[in-house]
Amino acid sequence: MREGELLVDILDVTETEELLATSTGEKGGKGEKSPQIDPNDDVCSYEKETRMLKSYKKIIGLLIAMLMVLSVTMGMNGSKAQAATSSSHPLKNLQVFSNTEYGQWAGAGSPLRIETTNGSSALPVDTNVTYNGLPSMRFNITSDGSSGWGWWSMIQSDNWETYSLVPYYANGALEFNIKGAAGGEAFTISMGDHALRRNPVDYSTPGVQSSTYVTVTTDWQHVRIPLKDIIPAGSIFDLNQVYLLSFGNANNNAEEFWLNDIKFTSPDPEHSAPFIKVNQLGYSILSDKYALVTGYADELNAVAGTPFTVKRTSDNAVVYTGKLQLATDHDTQSGERIFKADFSSLHRPGTYSISVAAPGVADSPPFQIGSNVYQPLVVDATRYFYYQRQGIALDAAHAGAYTRGVGHPQDAHATFASGVNPPRDVSQGWYDAGDYGKYVNNGATTVSNLVWSYQLFPNEFKDKQLNLPESGNGIPDILDEAKWELDFILKMQDQTSGGFYHMVQPSSSSAPDKDTTPRYIEDVNGSQTNVMPTDDAACAAAALAEASISFRKFDPTYANTLLTAARRGWDYLMANPNGVGSVPGAYGVSSDHADRLWAAAALYRATGEAQYNQYFLDNYQQFASAWDGNGSRDNPEGLGNMAQTAFLDYMRAAHPDLTARAWFATKFKAWSEPVLERSEQGPWHNTLQDNDYYWGSNSVVLNTMHVLAVGTIVLGGFNPATDLRVIRAVASAMNYILGMNPLETSYVSGEGTNSITLVFSAVWSYAGIPGIPKGYMPGGPNMYNNPLLYCGAPAKCYLDNDSNWTTNESDIGSNAELVLNAALLSQIL
To answer: Which residues pair with 154 in a beta bridge?
Structure first.
C-alpha cells in the first residue's frame, strides 16, 4: 500500500460521492437553498447546499490537494534538526522574590511588632543589604520584652493568584539566601493552598523549623529545603492550587534577618504534554484533517517519515496509513518539534484515534469524523449563557445537575452607589465572568455576537434547541437567551436622558443564591454622581439596534421597544459630544469614539435613516488603523474598539454608500491577507505570534476568525470554492481551541477526552457541585500576568484550576465568540 492510501474498507469514489451527497442534504438532509448570501438581507438564509457538492466537489478537491502539496513543501523546507537534551527545557525557577514584591501580608501580635512599609502590610525591600546583586527582604521584629503572640508573613504570587508545584514536588525545593543581624535567628516555614471546592478551602502545612536546615550567622548562607519536607506526602494540600509561602515566629523573640532570592527550584525538566494533538471533538467530512505530533526534541522519538495510522476505535481496525511530515524543528511558542499527520482523504464517518510508530508515543484521544460534528458545540456553547443567568432559579428540568436557587434576588431592588436615585429593579442579565458583576457595555458586545450568529446562520438555531424555560414559545432559543440580557440592559437605561448606567457591582464570594450582601448600581466617579458613561450608551444603542432586526419576525412589539431604546441612547450621545467618562471598575473605556461609530452603523442598518448614515460617512475614515495590520491585527475588536464591527454592520445595511464600501473592501483585503498567512504558516495555525499570548488569548484566536469570516460574508457572500482559505483558517483556529495545542487540552469543558474540568467562577466554585457544565471556554494561555506559572514557553502558560483567573476565567464575551465560530463551521462544513 502506498503512503497516504486508504485501506480497502474505506469508501471508493462512487461510495464517497453518495456519502457526501447524503451528509449534506441530497438525500433528505437539511437545507434546500443555494449557499449565496445576500449582503443586504438582514437575516440571511445561509443554509447548507443540498446540491453544491456536485458543482463544487472537484474544485474543492483540487484546491485542497494543491494546498496540501504546498503545506508539505513548506513543512519539509524547515531548518535542520537541532540537537536537544532535557537541559534545554528545564523547569524554570519560580521566583517568589528577587527584586519585585508580589502579594504580601505581614503582622504581629502584641507586644511584638514587625516592620512593614509605610501604608501597607508588606515587608520592606532593603536595597542596602544585597547579595549577588539582588536586594533583600527585611524581617525586623521588635518587642518590649514581655510574652508575645508571635509574628507572621505571607508571600503570594502577583494578584494573589494560585500556581502549581505539581512537577516540582518530587525533587524540588524552596531555596533562599539568609543572613542575620546578630546570628542565631530562627523562624518557621509553611505553605498554604486555596481550593475553593474543598472543605476547608484554605489549608496550611505544619511549620518546619529553619534551624533544621541552617544556623543563621551574620554572613550570607544558601538554604535548600526539599518540598517534601514542607508539604508532607499524603496531606490534603493541593499542589495544583498553591497560594501562600509563610514565614513565622519560632520563639517569640525580637530578631532581625534578611532573606534574598527566594524561589522554588527543581533539577527536573519540563516535560512535553501527550505527543499527538487532535481536534478532540472531531473533523467534518469535507474539512482538512490532520493531527500535530509535537514534543521536546529529546523526548519525541519520531522523525520525518515515521509512519502513523488512523484506527477505528470500535474494533481497532487500521483505516488509513501515512507518514509524518516535519512542520518545524523548533517552535518558539511551545519549545517543541512539530510534525504533521495529514489524513484529509479519510471521509468515512466514525470514531477514530491516531497511532504513531515511535517508542513512548501514546495513541491520540478519540475524535469523530462526520457531517454534523460542530452542532453539539453550538448547543453547549450557547447553553453556557443560561447557566450564567442572574435572577432566576436553575431547576433540574433545565439545568440537570447544576441547579441553584435564585441568584442575587436583591438586584430587583438595587441601590445606587450615589444615593441620588431611588432603588431600581436591575434584575436579569448574565453574570459577566467568574465574578458576579453585570456590565452594560460588555453585555452589549456579547449580545451583538449572539444576534450576529443567528442572523448569519439561522438554520443552526431553533426553538426547543437549548432546553430553556422559554423553549417552545416559537422564538429561536438563542434569541430567548439574548433577551435575558437585553431586558437587563433596558432596565439600566435612564428614562430621562436616554443614557445607561455602567454596572451592577460584584459582591461577596459565596454561592449566588446564598449571597445576601447589598448590590449597587455604580454611578459615582470621584466627585461626580449619577454618572452614565457614553461608551455604555454607544454599545447599548448598537446592540439594541442589531437585536431589533432579529426580533422583528418573532415579536414586533419587543423589536420596537429595543429600537426606541437604541434611538434614545443615540440621542444621549449627541447630547454629550465630548463624552462622559467611565466609572471606576471593570470595563472602563477611555474613549468612546469607535463605539459611537458602531452605534451609528447599527442604527443605520436597523433604520436606514440619513442621520446615522451621515455620521458614519463623516467619521469612518478616522478608523483606518482598525485595518492597518498593526495593533488591531491580533485583537480586532473589543470594548472601546468596536470599529471593525461598525464596518461589518454598515456593509450589511440595505444601501451602504458605494464609496465607503469600496474603501472598506480595499482595507479589509489588506488586513485579511496577513491574517491568512499567519494561520497558514504559524506552528499552531491560530494566527497568534509569540508575544500574543496575553489575557484572553483564546478569545483573540476566535475573534480574529469572526472578523475574517464575517468581513468576507458582508463583501458579497461566502463561496466554499473561492473562500477555501478562509474556511481552512476558521477550522484551524477551532482545532487549536479543541485540543490541537501544546498542552493537548480542549479549552471547552465537556468537549473532548482531555477537556478542561474547572474554571475560575464564583458561580460554580461555591455551588458544592462537582465539575462545571459543558460549553465553558476560559481565557487561555497568558504569559504576562502570573509570574509563578511554570511554563517555559508562551503557549503553555495556562493552569486548569478554579482560582487562577488570568488564564482560567470564562467570560460571556469569549463564549459568544465560541458560539459564532462554532455556528459558522457547523453551517459550512
So the answer is: 105, 246
